[in-house]
Amino acid sequence: MGTLTTLSEHACFDGIQTFYQHDSSEIGLPMRFAVYMPPGASGRVPALLYLAGLTCNEETFMTKAGAQQYAAQLGMALIAPDTGPRGANVPGESDSWDFGLAASFYIDATEAPWSTHYRMESYLVKELLPMLVEELSIDPERIGIFGHSMGGHGALTLALKYPGLFKSVSAFAPICAPTQCAWGQKAFTGYLGADNASWPAHDAVFLMAAKTEAPYPHGILIDQGLADKFLAPQLNPHIFEAACQAVNQPLLLRRHTGYDHGYYFISSFMADHMAHHASALGLAVTP
Asked: Taking the model in full, what pTM does it have?
């Protein structure tokens, strides 16, 4: 898994915000991630894994979302990985902002040359979280997942693939049906191949439709801004909403007038997401 190297450490709401690097065996390259540990943490600490969106990195959420203050109050750790491998030097990986560098879509690529290093699903599930359970006393029984945009897609799909690992899930403006939008089709063609038979395994709509009962009876929370320029062409929350209804999965899909796609929107509703996860993970939530 590689030894953890501390890149920087900062006091934050009486807890500690740390940025790390390690040599990843799954990715085959050094990977960076950030962890916020709440004050007074002793024993196993419940944690939230946050997956950021296109063009972002391990710093984006920690510096822009304003989540640490709520994590400190609730006694939760926050984990923010980078959005994909860096230094893979795959030809063309920097040619466009929505594919390649910082655009992993949190899947394991099967197409060469991407399949060598673009293995974010395995990295998160098989390497990063087990390492943090071991090294930082994260509670393996109380881990939630959330994310934004591409990371919202990652949160929904990974939660549906690994319901035993993730006990709660939410998302901000997620790419809900990647097989039906340009961003997803571009990424899946590149990473998984033009034959789209394998694509539904990485689409939250298909993953939800395959369930015979609600995988998250506590509920799924999604917030979506109605002034989001990506809503109509890329995000399609209504398709996921219908898939949830079909299997009686409780979904709170909130549509907000005036809010766009960025972190001003995310930070406006962060407290609600933190409370959603805290409740699902069995933590006391004060109004």
From this structure: 0.97
